[in-house]
Amino acid sequence: MADITLEQAQRVVEAALADARERGTAMNVAVVDAGTNLKAFGRMDGAWLGSIDIAIRKARTARFFDMPTGDLGQLSQPGGSLFNIEVSNGGLITFPGGLPLEVDGEVVGAIGVSGSTVENDHAVASAGVRAL
Amino acid sequence: MADITLEQAQRVVEAALADARERGTAMNVAVVDAGTNLKAFGRMDGAWLGSIDIAIRKARTARFFDMPTGDLGQLSQPGGSLFNIEVSNGGLITFPGGLPLEVDGEVVGAIGVSGSTVENDHAVASAGVRAL
Amino acid sequence: MADITLEQAQRVVEAALADARERGTAMNVAVVDAGTNLKAFGRMDGAWLGSIDIAIRKARTARFFDMPTGDLGQLSQPGGSLFNIEVSNGGLITFPGGLPLEVDGEVVGAIGVSGSTVENDHAVASAGVRAL
Amino acid sequence: MADITLEQAQRVVEAALADARERGTAMNVAVVDAGTNLKAFGRMDGAWLGSIDIAIRKARTARFFDMPTGDLGQLSQPGGSLFNIEVSNGGLITFPGGLPLEVDGEVVGAIGVSGSTVENDHAVASAGVRAL
Protein backbone atom coordinates (compact mmCIF):
# COMPACT_ATOMS: atom_id res chain seq x y z
CA MET A 1 0.00 0.00 0.00
CA ALA A 2 1.45 3.34 -1.02
CA ASP A 3 1.23 5.79 1.84
CA ILE A 4 1.63 9.52 2.32
CA THR A 5 4.82 10.72 4.03
CA LEU A 6 4.95 13.29 6.83
CA GLU A 7 6.80 15.63 4.51
CA GLN A 8 4.00 15.35 1.94
CA ALA A 9 1.26 15.69 4.55
CA GLN A 10 2.81 18.82 6.01
CA ARG A 11 3.18 20.30 2.53
CA VAL A 12 -0.53 19.67 1.91
CA VAL A 13 -1.50 21.25 5.25
CA GLU A 14 0.67 24.33 4.64
CA ALA A 15 -0.73 24.84 1.14
CA ALA A 16 -4.27 24.64 2.48
CA LEU A 17 -3.53 27.03 5.34
CA ALA A 18 -1.93 29.50 2.91
CA ASP A 19 -4.99 29.34 0.65
CA ALA A 20 -7.29 29.81 3.67
CA ARG A 21 -5.38 32.91 4.72
CA GLU A 22 -5.72 34.42 1.25
CA ARG A 23 -9.49 33.89 1.47
CA GLY A 24 -9.64 35.50 4.90
CA THR A 25 -11.05 32.33 6.46
CA ALA A 26 -10.04 30.52 9.68
CA MET A 27 -9.76 26.82 8.93
CA ASN A 28 -9.03 23.45 10.49
CA VAL A 29 -6.97 21.27 8.15
CA ALA A 30 -6.46 17.54 8.65
CA VAL A 31 -4.56 14.96 6.61
CA VAL A 32 -4.99 11.22 7.12
CA ASP A 33 -2.88 8.43 5.68
CA ALA A 34 -3.85 5.49 3.48
CA GLY A 35 -5.15 3.69 6.60
CA THR A 36 -7.39 6.67 7.54
CA ASN A 37 -5.16 7.47 10.55
CA LEU A 38 -4.34 11.09 11.38
CA LYS A 39 -1.02 12.18 9.88
CA ALA A 40 -0.90 15.99 10.20
CA PHE A 41 -3.20 18.68 11.50
CA GLY A 42 -3.30 22.45 12.00
CA ARG A 43 -5.97 24.81 13.33
CA MET A 44 -5.81 28.52 12.55
CA ASP A 45 -6.29 30.99 15.39
CA GLY A 46 -9.98 31.75 15.87
CA ALA A 47 -11.19 28.77 13.80
CA TRP A 48 -14.41 27.11 14.98
CA LEU A 49 -13.76 24.55 17.72
CA GLY A 50 -16.48 22.30 16.32
CA SER A 51 -14.59 22.06 13.05
CA ILE A 52 -11.64 20.13 14.51
CA ASP A 53 -13.68 16.96 14.59
CA ILE A 54 -15.38 17.74 11.28
CA ALA A 55 -12.10 18.32 9.42
CA ILE A 56 -10.75 14.99 10.66
CA ARG A 57 -14.00 13.19 9.80
CA LYS A 58 -14.06 14.70 6.31
CA ALA A 59 -10.55 13.45 5.67
CA ARG A 60 -11.39 9.97 6.95
CA THR A 61 -14.65 9.88 4.99
CA ALA A 62 -12.84 10.82 1.76
CA ARG A 63 -10.38 7.97 2.24
CA PHE A 64 -13.00 5.51 3.48
CA PHE A 65 -14.65 5.65 0.05
CA ASP A 66 -11.91 7.22 -2.12
CA MET A 67 -14.17 10.02 -3.31
CA PRO A 68 -14.91 13.66 -2.47
CA THR A 69 -17.12 13.89 0.62
CA GLY A 70 -19.62 16.00 -1.30
CA ASP A 71 -20.15 13.19 -3.83
CA LEU A 72 -21.08 10.84 -1.00
CA GLY A 73 -23.47 13.48 0.35
CA GLN A 74 -25.37 13.40 -2.93
CA LEU A 75 -26.14 9.73 -2.31
CA SER A 76 -26.98 9.97 1.41
CA GLN A 77 -30.01 12.24 1.12
CA PRO A 78 -33.52 11.02 1.98
CA GLY A 79 -34.53 8.60 -0.78
CA GLY A 80 -30.92 8.25 -1.92
CA SER A 81 -29.12 4.96 -2.26
CA LEU A 82 -26.91 5.59 0.79
CA PHE A 83 -29.44 7.34 3.03
CA ASN A 84 -27.98 8.14 6.46
CA ILE A 85 -24.65 6.46 5.78
CA GLU A 86 -23.37 9.16 8.18
CA VAL A 87 -24.10 6.98 11.22
CA SER A 88 -21.50 4.40 10.14
CA ASN A 89 -17.82 4.33 11.07
CA GLY A 90 -18.38 6.30 14.24
CA GLY A 91 -19.80 9.21 12.24
CA LEU A 92 -19.14 10.35 8.67
CA ILE A 93 -19.25 13.90 7.31
CA THR A 94 -20.61 13.90 3.77
CA PHE A 95 -20.73 17.56 2.79
CA PRO A 96 -17.88 19.12 0.77
CA GLY A 97 -14.41 19.71 2.19
CA GLY A 98 -12.89 16.22 2.10
CA LEU A 99 -10.82 14.99 -0.87
CA PRO A 100 -8.61 11.96 -1.56
CA LEU A 101 -4.90 12.59 -1.98
CA GLU A 102 -3.20 10.70 -4.82
CA VAL A 103 0.37 10.03 -5.87
CA ASP A 104 0.95 8.42 -9.27
CA GLY A 105 -2.75 7.59 -9.55
CA GLU A 106 -2.93 5.79 -6.23
CA VAL A 107 -4.78 7.10 -3.19
CA VAL A 108 -2.27 7.62 -0.37
CA GLY A 109 -4.51 9.47 2.07
CA ALA A 110 -7.00 12.33 2.20
CA ILE A 111 -7.45 15.94 3.29
CA GLY A 112 -10.34 17.38 5.28
CA VAL A 113 -11.03 21.11 5.72
CA SER A 114 -13.65 22.77 7.92
CA GLY A 115 -14.27 26.31 9.17
CA SER A 116 -16.22 28.28 6.58
CA THR A 117 -18.87 27.67 3.91
CA VAL A 118 -18.71 24.28 2.25
CA GLU A 119 -17.66 26.07 -0.94
CA ASN A 120 -14.66 27.60 0.83
CA ASP A 121 -13.91 24.34 2.64
CA HIS A 122 -13.85 22.52 -0.70
CA ALA A 123 -11.69 25.18 -2.38
CA VAL A 124 -9.12 25.13 0.42
CA ALA A 125 -9.02 21.33 0.37
CA SER A 126 -8.43 21.53 -3.40
CA ALA A 127 -5.44 23.82 -2.79
CA GLY A 128 -4.08 21.12 -0.52
CA VAL A 129 -4.57 18.45 -3.18
CA ARG A 130 -2.69 20.55 -5.77
CA ALA A 131 0.35 20.77 -3.46
CA LEU A 132 0.96 17.03 -3.71
CA MET B 1 -9.11 34.13 24.33
CA ALA B 2 -11.57 35.87 26.67
CA ASP B 3 -13.42 33.48 28.96
CA ILE B 4 -16.59 33.64 31.04
CA THR B 5 -16.27 33.87 34.85
CA LEU B 6 -18.22 31.79 37.35
CA GLU B 7 -19.98 34.93 38.57
CA GLN B 8 -21.11 35.71 35.01
CA ALA B 9 -22.13 32.12 34.30
CA GLN B 10 -24.22 31.89 37.46
CA ARG B 11 -25.90 35.22 36.64
CA VAL B 12 -26.82 33.84 33.20
CA VAL B 13 -28.21 30.61 34.70
CA GLU B 14 -30.27 32.47 37.31
CA ALA B 15 -31.75 34.85 34.71
CA ALA B 16 -32.74 31.91 32.53
CA LEU B 17 -34.26 30.01 35.46
CA ALA B 18 -36.24 33.11 36.49
CA ASP B 19 -37.56 33.52 32.97
CA ALA B 20 -38.48 29.83 32.81
CA ARG B 21 -40.44 30.11 36.05
CA GLU B 22 -42.42 33.06 34.68
CA ARG B 23 -43.35 30.95 31.67
CA GLY B 24 -44.42 28.05 33.85
CA THR B 25 -41.85 25.74 32.25
CA ALA B 26 -39.38 23.33 33.87
CA MET B 27 -35.98 23.78 32.26
CA ASN B 28 -32.41 22.52 32.26
CA VAL B 29 -29.95 25.39 31.85
CA ALA B 30 -26.26 24.88 31.01
CA VAL B 31 -23.44 27.36 30.48
CA VAL B 32 -20.11 26.38 28.90
CA ASP B 33 -16.92 28.41 28.75
CA ALA B 34 -14.91 29.57 25.73
CA GLY B 35 -13.36 26.11 25.44
CA THR B 36 -16.83 24.43 25.43
CA ASN B 37 -16.25 23.05 28.95
CA LEU B 38 -19.16 23.06 31.46
CA LYS B 39 -19.08 26.09 33.75
CA ALA B 40 -22.50 26.21 35.50
CA PHE B 41 -25.70 24.18 35.41
CA GLY B 42 -29.09 24.03 37.06
CA ARG B 43 -32.13 21.79 36.55
CA MET B 44 -35.56 22.83 37.77
CA ASP B 45 -37.65 20.38 39.77
CA GLY B 46 -39.65 18.17 37.44
CA ALA B 47 -37.65 19.08 34.32
CA TRP B 48 -37.20 16.31 31.73
CA LEU B 49 -34.24 14.08 32.56
CA GLY B 50 -33.45 13.68 28.86
CA SER B 51 -32.94 17.41 28.61
CA ILE B 52 -29.85 17.47 30.83
CA ASP B 53 -27.72 16.14 28.01
CA ILE B 54 -29.56 18.21 25.40
CA ALA B 55 -29.04 21.48 27.29
CA ILE B 56 -25.32 20.80 27.61
CA ARG B 57 -25.02 19.79 23.93
CA LYS B 58 -26.92 22.89 22.82
CA ALA B 59 -24.50 25.08 24.75
CA ARG B 60 -21.49 23.26 23.31
CA THR B 61 -22.91 23.36 19.78
CA ALA B 62 -23.50 27.13 20.02
CA ARG B 63 -19.87 27.66 21.03
CA PHE B 64 -18.51 25.11 18.57
CA PHE B 65 -19.73 27.29 15.69
CA ASP B 66 -20.37 30.65 17.39
CA MET B 67 -23.97 30.79 16.22
CA PRO B 68 -27.48 30.01 17.51
CA THR B 69 -28.13 26.26 17.36
CA GLY B 70 -31.29 26.89 15.35
CA ASP B 71 -29.28 28.60 12.60
CA LEU B 72 -27.12 25.51 12.25
CA GLY B 73 -30.29 23.40 12.10
CA GLN B 74 -31.44 25.37 9.06
CA LEU B 75 -28.32 24.25 7.23
CA SER B 76 -28.32 20.61 8.35
CA GLN B 77 -31.67 19.66 6.82
CA PRO B 78 -31.90 17.17 3.93
CA GLY B 79 -30.49 18.90 0.87
CA GLY B 80 -28.84 21.56 3.05
CA SER B 81 -25.15 22.34 2.93
CA LEU B 82 -24.46 20.77 6.33
CA PHE B 83 -26.76 17.71 6.18
CA ASN B 84 -26.25 15.38 9.16
CA ILE B 85 -23.55 17.52 10.79
CA GLU B 86 -25.16 16.27 14.03
CA VAL B 87 -23.05 13.09 14.01
CA SER B 88 -19.87 15.11 14.62
CA ASN B 89 -18.30 16.12 17.92
CA GLY B 90 -19.88 13.23 19.78
CA GLY B 91 -23.36 14.49 18.92
CA LEU B 92 -24.61 18.01 18.19
CA ILE B 93 -28.06 19.41 18.91
CA THR B 94 -29.09 21.79 16.14
CA PHE B 95 -32.61 22.91 17.05
CA PRO B 96 -33.18 26.19 18.93
CA GLY B 97 -32.17 26.73 22.55
CA GLY B 98 -28.41 27.26 22.31
CA LEU B 99 -26.89 30.75 21.99
CA PRO B 100 -23.36 32.18 22.15
CA LEU B 101 -22.52 34.44 25.10
CA GLU B 102 -20.51 37.55 24.29
CA VAL B 103 -18.65 40.16 26.33
CA ASP B 104 -17.35 43.23 24.50
CA GLY B 105 -18.11 41.61 21.16
CA GLU B 106 -16.08 38.48 21.88
CA VAL B 107 -17.61 35.03 22.41
CA VAL B 108 -16.75 33.88 25.96
CA GLY B 109 -19.01 30.83 26.13
CA ALA B 110 -22.57 29.75 25.40
CA ILE B 111 -25.90 28.88 27.03
CA GLY B 112 -28.07 25.86 26.30
CA VAL B 113 -31.68 25.44 27.45
CA SER B 114 -33.91 22.39 27.13
CA GLY B 115 -37.20 21.28 28.69
CA SER B 116 -40.10 22.73 26.72
CA THR B 117 -40.95 23.69 23.13
CA VAL B 118 -38.00 24.91 21.09
CA GLU B 119 -39.67 28.34 21.06
CA ASN B 120 -39.66 28.42 24.85
CA ASP B 121 -36.16 26.97 25.01
CA HIS B 122 -34.91 29.72 22.71
CA ALA B 123 -36.73 32.46 24.63
CA VAL B 124 -35.33 31.30 27.97
CA ALA B 125 -31.83 31.10 26.51
CA SER B 126 -32.28 34.66 25.23
CA ALA B 127 -33.13 35.80 28.76
CA GLY B 128 -29.84 34.30 29.86
CA VAL B 129 -27.96 36.13 27.11
CA ARG B 130 -29.48 39.46 28.16
CA ALA B 131 -28.22 39.03 31.73
CA LEU B 132 -24.60 39.20 30.62
CA MET C 1 -38.42 8.26 46.13
CA ALA C 2 -37.45 11.40 48.00
CA ASP C 3 -35.46 13.70 45.75
CA ILE C 4 -33.32 16.79 46.17
CA THR C 5 -34.82 20.11 45.04
CA LEU C 6 -33.03 22.70 42.93
CA GLU C 7 -33.11 25.08 45.90
CA GLN C 8 -31.37 22.50 48.07
CA ALA C 9 -28.87 21.55 45.39
CA GLN C 10 -27.89 25.17 44.79
CA ARG C 11 -27.52 25.69 48.56
CA VAL C 12 -25.16 22.71 48.69
CA VAL C 13 -23.12 24.00 45.74
CA GLU C 14 -22.82 27.50 47.21
CA ALA C 15 -21.72 26.17 50.61
CA ALA C 16 -19.06 24.04 48.95
CA LEU C 17 -17.84 26.93 46.80
CA ALA C 18 -17.65 29.21 49.85
CA ASP C 19 -15.63 26.61 51.72
CA ALA C 20 -13.32 26.13 48.74
CA ARG C 21 -12.68 29.87 48.57
CA GLU C 22 -11.73 29.96 52.25
CA ARG C 23 -9.19 27.20 51.58
CA GLY C 24 -7.75 29.06 48.62
CA THR C 25 -8.61 26.19 46.28
CA ALA C 26 -10.26 26.25 42.81
CA MET C 27 -12.92 23.57 42.72
CA ASN C 28 -15.52 21.94 40.51
CA VAL C 29 -18.69 21.14 42.47
CA ALA C 30 -21.46 18.86 41.17
CA VAL C 31 -24.74 17.74 42.73
CA VAL C 32 -26.78 14.84 41.34
CA ASP C 33 -30.30 13.85 42.28
CA ALA C 34 -31.66 10.57 43.65
CA GLY C 35 -31.58 9.13 40.11
CA THR C 36 -27.86 10.10 39.68
CA ASN C 37 -28.78 12.78 37.14
CA LEU C 38 -27.00 16.15 37.22
CA LYS C 39 -28.94 18.76 39.21
CA ALA C 40 -26.55 21.68 39.79
CA PHE C 41 -22.94 22.46 38.95
CA GLY C 42 -20.41 25.25 39.30
CA ARG C 43 -16.73 25.55 38.33
CA MET C 44 -14.54 28.17 39.93
CA ASP C 45 -12.32 30.31 37.73
CA GLY C 46 -9.01 28.59 37.11
CA ALA C 47 -10.19 25.18 38.33
CA TRP C 48 -8.71 22.16 36.52
CA LEU C 49 -10.62 21.34 33.34
CA GLY C 50 -10.13 17.62 33.96
CA SER C 51 -12.01 17.93 37.23
CA ILE C 52 -15.37 18.75 35.63
CA ASP C 53 -15.86 15.14 34.67
CA ILE C 54 -14.33 13.85 37.90
CA ALA C 55 -16.61 15.97 40.12
CA ILE C 56 -19.68 14.69 38.28
CA ARG C 57 -18.44 11.07 38.41
CA LYS C 58 -17.70 11.35 42.14
CA ALA C 59 -21.25 12.56 42.78
CA ARG C 60 -22.73 9.78 40.66
CA THR C 61 -20.49 7.15 42.27
CA ALA C 62 -21.54 8.26 45.77
CA ARG C 63 -25.21 7.90 44.86
CA PHE C 64 -24.71 4.68 42.87
CA PHE C 65 -23.66 2.93 46.08
CA ASP C 66 -24.90 5.35 48.80
CA MET C 67 -21.49 5.66 50.38
CA PRO C 68 -18.50 8.02 50.34
CA THR C 69 -16.41 7.49 47.20
CA GLY C 70 -13.31 6.97 49.34
CA ASP C 71 -14.94 3.99 51.09
CA LEU C 72 -15.50 2.33 47.73
CA GLY C 73 -11.87 3.02 46.82
CA GLN C 74 -10.74 0.96 49.82
CA LEU C 75 -12.48 -2.05 48.29
CA SER C 76 -11.38 -1.56 44.68
CA GLN C 77 -7.64 -1.92 45.21
CA PRO C 78 -5.69 -4.90 43.80
CA GLY C 79 -6.70 -7.95 45.83
CA GLY C 80 -9.77 -6.13 47.17
CA SER C 81 -13.29 -7.45 46.90
CA LEU C 82 -14.31 -4.87 44.28
CA PHE C 83 -11.06 -4.70 42.30
CA ASN C 84 -11.36 -2.38 39.28
CA ILE C 85 -15.05 -1.62 39.84
CA GLU C 86 -14.08 1.72 38.26
CA VAL C 87 -14.66 0.37 34.75
CA SER C 88 -18.40 -0.08 35.42
CA ASN C 89 -21.16 2.46 34.82
CA GLY C 90 -19.18 4.25 32.14
CA GLY C 91 -16.39 4.99 34.63
CA LEU C 92 -16.47 5.43 38.42
CA ILE C 93 -14.21 7.64 40.53
CA THR C 94 -13.49 5.96 43.86
CA PHE C 95 -11.10 8.31 45.65
CA PRO C 96 -12.42 10.84 48.21
CA GLY C 97 -14.57 13.84 47.27
CA GLY C 98 -17.99 12.26 46.68
CA LEU C 99 -20.60 12.02 49.46
CA PRO C 100 -24.28 11.07 49.62
CA LEU C 101 -26.76 13.83 50.49
CA GLU C 102 -29.48 12.89 52.95
CA VAL C 103 -32.72 14.47 54.13
CA ASP C 104 -34.49 12.89 57.11
CA GLY C 105 -32.25 9.85 56.87
CA GLU C 106 -32.99 9.18 53.23
CA VAL C 107 -30.48 9.63 50.42
CA VAL C 108 -31.82 12.28 48.01
CA GLY C 109 -28.70 12.71 45.88
CA ALA C 110 -24.95 13.24 46.19
CA ILE C 111 -22.20 15.84 45.92
CA GLY C 112 -18.88 15.47 44.09
CA VAL C 113 -15.93 17.84 44.43
CA SER C 114 -12.66 17.86 42.45
CA GLY C 115 -9.83 20.34 42.01
CA SER C 116 -7.28 19.92 44.77
CA THR C 117 -5.88 17.16 47.00
CA VAL C 118 -8.34 14.42 47.86
CA GLU C 119 -8.25 15.66 51.45
CA ASN C 120 -9.39 19.13 50.35
CA ASP C 121 -11.90 17.65 47.92
CA HIS C 122 -13.41 15.59 50.75
CA ALA C 123 -13.48 18.54 53.15
CA VAL C 124 -15.22 20.80 50.64
CA ALA C 125 -17.76 18.09 49.86
CA SER C 126 -18.41 17.75 53.59
CA ALA C 127 -19.14 21.48 53.78
CA GLY C 128 -21.73 20.92 51.07
CA VAL C 129 -23.29 18.06 53.02
CA ARG C 130 -23.60 20.21 56.15
CA ALA C 131 -25.57 22.86 54.24
CA LEU C 132 -28.46 20.49 53.66
CA MET D 1 -7.41 32.82 29.50
CA ALA D 2 -4.23 33.01 27.43
CA ASP D 3 -4.18 30.60 24.50
CA ILE D 4 -1.50 29.14 22.25
CA THR D 5 -1.26 30.38 18.65
CA LEU D 6 -0.91 28.18 15.57
CA GLU D 7 2.56 29.62 14.97
CA GLN D 8 3.62 28.65 18.50
CA ALA D 9 2.01 25.21 18.28
CA GLN D 10 3.72 24.42 14.99
CA ARG D 11 7.07 25.56 16.40
CA VAL D 12 6.59 23.19 19.34
CA VAL D 13 5.69 20.28 17.03
CA GLU D 14 8.67 20.91 14.75
CA ALA D 15 11.11 21.08 17.68
CA ALA D 16 9.78 17.81 19.04
CA LEU D 17 9.97 16.12 15.64
CA ALA D 18 13.55 17.34 15.18
CA ASP D 19 14.52 15.97 18.59
CA ALA D 20 12.83 12.66 17.82
CA ARG D 21 14.78 12.35 14.56
CA GLU D 22 18.06 12.92 16.39
CA ARG D 23 17.15 10.09 18.76
CA GLY D 24 16.29 7.79 15.89
CA THR D 25 12.73 7.38 17.12
CA ALA D 26 9.41 7.57 15.21
CA MET D 27 6.99 9.73 17.17
CA ASN D 28 3.45 11.12 17.18
CA VAL D 29 3.41 14.70 18.44
CA ALA D 30 0.20 16.52 19.46
CA VAL D 31 -0.38 20.03 20.79
CA VAL D 32 -3.69 21.09 22.38
CA ASP D 33 -4.81 24.61 23.26
CA ALA D 34 -5.83 26.06 26.63
CA GLY D 35 -9.28 24.47 26.24
CA THR D 36 -7.72 21.00 25.56
CA ASN D 37 -8.76 21.17 21.89
CA LEU D 38 -6.33 19.88 19.22
CA LYS D 39 -4.22 22.66 17.69
CA ALA D 40 -1.42 20.93 15.74
CA PHE D 41 -0.30 17.37 15.09
CA GLY D 42 2.32 15.46 13.18
CA ARG D 43 3.13 11.74 12.87
CA MET D 44 6.51 10.58 11.66
CA ASP D 45 6.69 7.90 8.99
CA GLY D 46 6.59 4.44 10.56
CA ALA D 47 5.40 5.70 13.96
CA TRP D 48 3.04 3.37 15.89
CA LEU D 49 -0.58 3.86 14.83
CA GLY D 50 -1.75 3.22 18.39
CA SER D 51 0.26 6.21 19.52
CA ILE D 52 -1.86 8.76 17.64
CA ASP D 53 -4.59 8.52 20.25
CA ILE D 54 -2.08 8.25 23.12
CA ALA D 55 -0.19 11.39 22.06
CA ILE D 56 -3.44 13.36 21.91
CA ARG D 57 -4.63 11.98 25.27
CA LYS D 58 -1.29 12.77 26.90
CA ALA D 59 -1.54 16.39 25.73
CA ARG D 60 -5.12 16.66 26.97
CA THR D 61 -4.27 15.02 30.30
CA ALA D 62 -1.38 17.44 30.88
CA ARG D 63 -3.69 20.41 30.32
CA PHE D 64 -6.60 18.86 32.24
CA PHE D 65 -4.51 19.00 35.42
CA ASP D 66 -1.71 21.42 34.48
CA MET D 67 1.02 18.94 35.34
CA PRO D 68 3.29 16.39 33.62
CA THR D 69 1.36 13.21 32.87
CA GLY D 70 3.99 11.18 34.69
CA ASP D 71 3.33 13.10 37.92
CA LEU D 72 -0.31 12.14 37.73
CA GLY D 73 0.71 8.54 37.13
CA GLN D 74 2.61 8.53 40.43
CA LEU D 75 -0.65 9.32 42.22
CA SER D 76 -2.90 6.93 40.30
CA GLN D 77 -1.11 3.71 41.28
CA PRO D 78 -2.78 1.08 43.47
CA GLY D 79 -2.99 2.55 46.96
CA GLY D 80 -2.34 6.05 45.62
CA SER D 81 -4.64 8.98 46.22
CA LEU D 82 -5.90 9.07 42.63
CA PHE D 83 -6.14 5.32 41.88
CA ASN D 84 -7.77 4.64 38.51
CA ILE D 85 -8.31 8.32 37.64
CA GLU D 86 -7.61 7.09 34.08
CA VAL D 87 -11.28 6.15 33.54
CA SER D 88 -12.35 9.82 33.68
CA ASN D 89 -12.60 12.31 30.85
CA GLY D 90 -13.11 9.60 28.25
CA GLY D 91 -9.74 8.07 29.08
CA LEU D 92 -6.58 9.67 30.47
CA ILE D 93 -2.98 8.62 29.81
CA THR D 94 -0.90 9.06 32.95
CA PHE D 95 2.56 7.81 32.02
CA PRO D 96 5.27 10.25 30.90
CA GLY D 97 5.17 12.12 27.58
CA GLY D 98 2.63 14.90 28.26
CA LEU D 99 3.71 18.34 29.50
CA PRO D 100 1.96 21.70 29.97
CA LEU D 101 3.03 24.55 27.69
CA GLU D 102 3.45 27.95 29.35
CA VAL D 103 3.89 31.51 28.13
CA ASP D 104 4.76 34.17 30.71
CA GLY D 105 3.97 31.74 33.52
CA GLU D 106 0.48 30.93 32.28
CA VAL D 107 -0.54 27.55 30.85
CA VAL D 108 -1.62 28.07 27.23
CA GLY D 109 -1.89 24.43 26.17
CA ALA D 110 0.06 21.18 26.32
CA ILE D 111 2.17 18.77 24.27
CA GLY D 112 1.82 14.99 24.12
CA VAL D 113 4.37 12.63 22.57
CA SER D 114 4.07 8.88 22.01
CA GLY D 115 5.99 6.31 19.98
CA SER D 116 8.96 5.06 21.96
CA THR D 117 9.91 4.38 25.59
CA VAL D 118 8.30 6.71 28.10
CA GLU D 119 11.76 8.14 28.79
CA ASN D 120 12.15 9.05 25.12
CA ASP D 121 8.55 10.29 24.92
CA HIS D 122 9.19 12.58 27.88
CA ALA D 123 12.50 13.84 26.48
CA VAL D 124 10.97 14.66 23.09
CA ALA D 125 8.06 16.45 24.78
CA SER D 126 10.58 18.46 26.79
CA ALA D 127 12.27 19.54 23.55
CA GLY D 128 8.90 20.81 22.42
CA VAL D 129 8.42 22.74 25.66
CA ARG D 130 11.82 24.41 25.28
CA ALA D 131 10.86 25.74 21.82
CA LEU D 132 8.14 27.95 23.25
From TrEMBL, chains A, B, C, D:
SUPFAM superfamilies: GlcG-like (SSF143744). InterPro entries: GlcG_carb_metab_protein (IPR052517), PduO/GlcC-like (IPR005624), PduO/GlcC-like_sf (IPR038084). Pfam families: HbpS-like. Gene3D superfamilies: Haem-degrading domain. This is Heme-binding protein. It comes from Georgenia thermotolerans.
